[in-house]
Amino acid sequence: MRRNLRRNNRQTSESYKYTLANTNLYETKSTSSTILTAIPSGAKVQIIDGEEDWYTVMYNNLTGYVPASSLSTTKYTWLDLLLRSYPSAESNPVAMIPEKSEVQVLSVTGEWSHVVYNDQQGYIFSYFLTDDGNSPAHYDFTYFYTDMTRFVNDNQIPSPTVNLITTDLENKLTYVFEKGANGLWILLYKWDCTVGKPSTPTIKGTFYVSGRKPYFGTDNYRVKYATRIRGAYYYHSILFNAAGTEIIDARLGMALSHGCIRLAVENAQWIYDNVLDASAIVIN
Fold first, then answer.
1. Please, which residues have CB within 8 angstroms of residue 101's CB and are 6 or more apart in sequence?
2. pLDDT tens by residue, 43-60
3. What would the 3-class secondary structure string for 101-114 be?
4. For residues 123 and 106, is the Cβ–Cβ distance under 8 A?
C-alpha cells in the first residue's frame, strides 16, 4: 500500500554556490541550449534546485541552468575552527567558523581546502570538513561492510520515521530497514546499486530524506522515482532515454554516476513510494 508521503520538492540546503570558472547560464539543461548570460568566475549564484549534474540557479535576476561541475562543493565543519588566510596553521585567521557550518569549497590543494564562508575566502584543513557536519568517527563502522544489520543496531542509529536507508559505497549495496516492535532495526531489502565515480563521488555521512521527484533528466537521459538525499544527490532509477520509454544504461554494482545512487527501477520506486520524508540515511 502506498503511504501518504509528505512531498517536498524544493531545495532544503545549499542556498548559494560560487562559480569555479567563467561559465554560462543556460535556458535548459543542455550546453547547446540558449545562453541567457555569461557568469564570471567566482560569482555567487542562488541555488533554486539541483539534479545530479545540473543546478537551477538565479543570477542577476535571471533563472536558468548551470552544470554542477562549474560550481563549488558544499561541505560542513564538524568542530569550531579558524578560517586561515593561507593553507597553513601558522597563517593569520580570517574568521571563526562554528561547528556544523556550511562552507563552499572552491579547490583542494594537498591537505587544505580553499573555501568561502559568509562571503569570506580562506583555507581549512580538509580533515575538518565532512558532507554532513559529523566527525569522521561519528559511528563505529567495524561491521558496516560485513554485517549491516549489526552495524545499525550496535550504533542504535536514530531515524525520525519507521525506516532507515544505508548505502555501502565499497560493496555498492543499499539496504532498507524498518523499526521493529522491540526497537531494533529489521532488514527489509538489500539491493545492488551504482554509486558516484571517483571524479564525482557520492557524498558520505548521515542525511535525511528531503523530498522526491517522479523523474528528472536532460536531453540525453531521464531517471525515474528520485528520492532526495541532500541537494543534488538522490536515490533514483537506472538511466532511461530522454523520453523515459527505453532503458539505456542498466548497469548496477559499479562506480560511474555523477554522485547519485542508481537502483533497479522497482527498487527506486519502492523507496519513492514508501519511505517518508525525514527518514535517516547513512552512506559510507
1. 76, 77, 117, 133
2. 999 999 999 899 999 999
3. CEEEEEEEECCEEE
4. no
